[in-house]
Amino acid sequence: MEEMQVIKIAGVVLIILVSSIIYFTNSNRKKRHRTAQKEVKPPNKRDNFRFRINIKNTVMEVLKIGSLNVNEYVYCEIVDVSAGGVGILSDYDFPLREKVYVKVHFYLDNQEFMLNGRIVRKIENLKKQTVLYGIQFIGLSAYDENRLMKTIVAMENERRKIAIK
How far is CA 17 from CA 3, 23, 43, 76, 123, in A? Predict the structure, then answer.
C-alpha cells in the first residue's frame, strides 16, 4: 500500500514538473515573439540639442547645386537650430538629386550668424506648399560652433525660467 502511495506521489510530482517545463517554455517563446514583433526605431543620428524657434524672413544664399554655381538668395523661415545645423521652411523646391550647398544668414539672440551648410533632408508639405529642409553645417569653425552652442543654451535656459514661473 505504501508503495502505491509513493508511486502516486512520484507521478503527481512528475506531472507538475513536466507541466512547469512546458509552461515556461511556451511563455519564453511568446515573449521572444512579442519582442521580435516590436518595431525597432532607428537610432537618432542627431548629435546636438535642437532649439525650436521661428525666425521669419531669414536669408539663405544658395551657393551650389551639384557642380553648378548658383549664388541666389532665397527667403526662408528657420524652425529649429542646433550646433550641427538648422531646419528651415522654404517655398523654393530644391532638387536633391545633387548636393545643394547654402549659406544661412540669421540673428539669434542679437548675434549674427552666417554659416555654410548642405541640405541633407527634405520633407514636402503639400497643404502649405512649403518644404522643410534639414541643413547640416559644414566647415563650422570652433569659434562659431562655441558661440552658437552658448547662445542656444542661454536661450533655452531663459525659456525654461519663463516656463517655471
Answer: 21, 10, 43, 70, 58
